[in-house]
C-alpha cells in the first residue's frame, strides 16, 4: 500500500512540484525501491525474534533447555552433512537455515544462527537454576 502511494505521488505530482521549485524525484525513486527492502529486513528480524521466543517457551515447557540445545546442535550437524538444495522460498518452514553464513544472508534469514540459539538456551538454563 505504501509502495502504491509512493508510486502515485511520483507520477501525479509533477505539475505542483514544478511550480514550487521542483521536487526530489531521485529521493522518491530511492524510496520506492528501498521501502520494500526495508520492510523485508524488518519482517525477517521479527521472525528471528519469534524463533528465540519459541526456543525459550519450549525450554520452560520441558524444563530442560540443555536438551533443546543438544537437539539444535544435532540438527545443525545434520544440515551440514546433507545440505538442502531446495527452493529458498521454503526456508521459513525449516528449523535450521541452510546455505552460506554471510552478513547479507543472515540479514534475510528467517531463523537466527544456531550458535546464538544454543547460547540463548544455555543462558536460560542458568537463569532457571537460580
Helix content range of the residues, please?
Answer: over 70%
Compressed to H and E, one letter per element, the order equals HHHHHH
Gyration radius, to the nearest Å? 22 Å
Strand residue percentage: under 5%
Separation of termini? Answer: 48 Å
Structural class: mainly alpha
Number of strands: 0
Largest sheet: none
| Count of folded domains | 1
Global outline: elongated
Query: Mean of residue pLDDT?
Result: 79
* Low-confidence runs of at least 5 consecutive residues: none
Per DSSP, the total helix count is: 6
Description:
- This protein is mainly α.
- The protein has one domain (37-129).
- Helix content is 72%, strand content 0%.
- It has six helices and no strands.
- The chain has helices at 2-12, 14-19, 25-62, 65-81, 103-107, 114-129.
- Helix 1 runs antiparallel to helix 3 and helix 3 (25-62) crosses helix 6 (114-129).
Describe the structure in brief.
With 130 residues, this protein is mostly helical. The protein is built from six helices and no strands.
Keywords:
elongated; 130 residues
Topology (SSEs and partners):
Blueprint lengths: L1 H11 L1 H6 L5 H38 L2 H17 L21 H5 L6 H16 L1
Helix pairs in contact: 1-3, 3-6, 4-6
Amino acid at each position: 500500500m505504501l509502495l502504491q502511494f509512493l508510486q502515485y505521488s511520483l507520477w501525479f505530482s509533477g505539475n505542483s512540484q514544478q511550480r514550487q521549485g521542483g521536487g526530489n524525484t531521485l529521493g522518491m525513486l530511492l524510496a520506492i525501491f528501498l521501502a520494500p527492502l526495508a520492510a523485508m529486513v524488518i519482517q525477517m528480524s521479527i521472525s528471528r525474534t519469534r524463533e528465540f521466543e519459541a526456543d525459550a517457551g519450549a525450554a520452560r515447557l520441558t524444563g530442560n533447555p540443555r536438551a533443546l540445545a543438544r537437539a539444535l546442535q544435532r540438527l545443525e550437524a545434520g544440515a551440514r552433512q546433507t545440505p538442502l538444495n531446495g527452493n529458498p522460498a521454503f526456508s521459513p518452514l525449516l528449523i535450521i537455515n541452510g546455505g552460506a553464513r554471510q552478513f547479507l544472508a543472515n540479514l534475510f534469514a528467517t531463523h537466527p544462527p544456531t550458535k546464538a540459539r544454543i547460547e540463548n538456551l544455555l543462558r536460560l538454563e542458568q537463569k532457571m537454576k537460580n
